[in-house]
Amino acid sequence: MIFRPLKYEKYAQKAVDKLQERQPAFRAKFDTENYASWFYNQSSETLRLYSDDKEIYFRYIPVGTFSLNTNTWMWAWANEDSVETRKFRTLKVKEFGEKKNYENLTNAHFNGDKYTGWESTAIAFDIIGGIGTYRVITERLEKYFLLTEQIKKEEVEKIESALIECSAHGKIRKAFICQHLNTETKTGFEEAFETYRGMELDEDDDLQAWCSECEKKRLKTDGWNDASMEFAQIKLVCERCYFEIKESNLDAKNTKHNNA
Questions:
Q1: Prediction pTM value
Q2: Cα–Cα distance, 94 to 159 (Å, whole number)
C-alpha cells in the first residue's frame, strides 16, 4: 500500500484535473492520437510523431520514467544515464516539493502504480508548464514528456547539427574551454556569462569558460587578442564535460571559503 499525505493528495488531484481539462484541446489541435509511430531524440530533445503520409515535431522536457518491472518512478533530474539537458528543469518540481514537504516530489525514486506517471507529469505540467504532455511505452518502461512547442523539421536538423559527439557522454551540445581547465586541478573558472545546467541559449551564444590565468592575460590586454588566445588554446568539449569542470572548480572555491 502506498501512503500519501492528505495535503499532497489534494494538490496532486488538482494538478491531474488541470491536465485533464487542457490535454484534450492539445490532442485535438495537433491530432497526436492519429500518428502510427513515435521517435524521441535525447540529444536534440525532440519528439517526432509520424505515419506514412504525415509527421510532426515537438521540443520536450523529460519528466521521468516509470519502470514496469519494479513499479517505481524516477524523476528526470535524477537520471544519470540521460544526456537530456532540459531534464534539470524538473528541479523546479523538487524545489516546490521541498517547500511543501511532499516526499514524492523530492525523492529521486519511489514506489508507485499505474497512475503514478500521469500524476507526476500533471504536477510537472502545473509547475513548469507546456503546451501538452505525451507518454511513450517500451517493453519495460514508460517515459513521460512535457511538450513545450511544435517545431519544424528544419529546426530539428539545425539543433542536431550544433551537437558534438563526446566519447564519455554521447551526442550533446558543444561548449568551449581553455586548455588549462579540467576536473583534476583547480584553476579557477571564468565564464562569458553565468550558466546553469539545462539553460536555454540564444542562437548566437555558446558556453565559454577559461581559467584564472587566462583571465589575467585577457584583462592585461583589455580583452582577447592573438597573444591571450594563443595562451588559452581554446578547445571544444561537450556540455556535460563543461559543467563537470565548472562544478569541480566551484566545489574547490566553496571548500576554501568554508575552511577560512
A1: 0.77
A2: 28
Q: Report whether 12 contacts 123 (CB < 8 A).
A: yes
Collapsing DSSP states into helix, strand and coil, what is residue 141?
strand
Phi and psi dihedrals of 208, rounded to 5? -140, 130
Which H or E element spans position 120? helix 116-128
pLDDT value of position 259: 35
Q: How far apart are CA 83 and CA 65, in angstroms?
A: 14
CB 150 within 8 A of CB 56: yes
Pick the closest to residue 126 from 161, 151, 102, 143 (CA basis): 102
Q: Nearest 5°: CA angle at 91, between 121 and 88? A: 95
The two beta strands, 170-177 and 207-210, are: parallel
> Once rounded to an integer, what is the mean pLDDT over residues 20-44?
96
Q: What is Dmax (Cα atoms) for the chain?
A: 67
Radius of gyration of the chain (CA): 21
Residue bearing cell 558534438: 164
Cell of 227: 597573444
Question: Residue 162 has which C-alpha cell?
Answer: 550544433
pLDDT tens digits along 141-197: 999 999 999 999 999 998 888 889 899 888 888 999 999 999 999 999 999 999 988
pLDDT confidence of residue 172: 86
| Spatial separation of the C-alpha atoms in residues 175 and 195, rounded to whole Å | 12
What mean pLDDT comes out for the span 75-102? 94
Integer CA distances (angstroms), 96 to 92, 121, 127, in order: 6, 14, 8
Contacts of residue 92, Cβ cutoff 8 Å, sequence gap at least 6: 127, 128
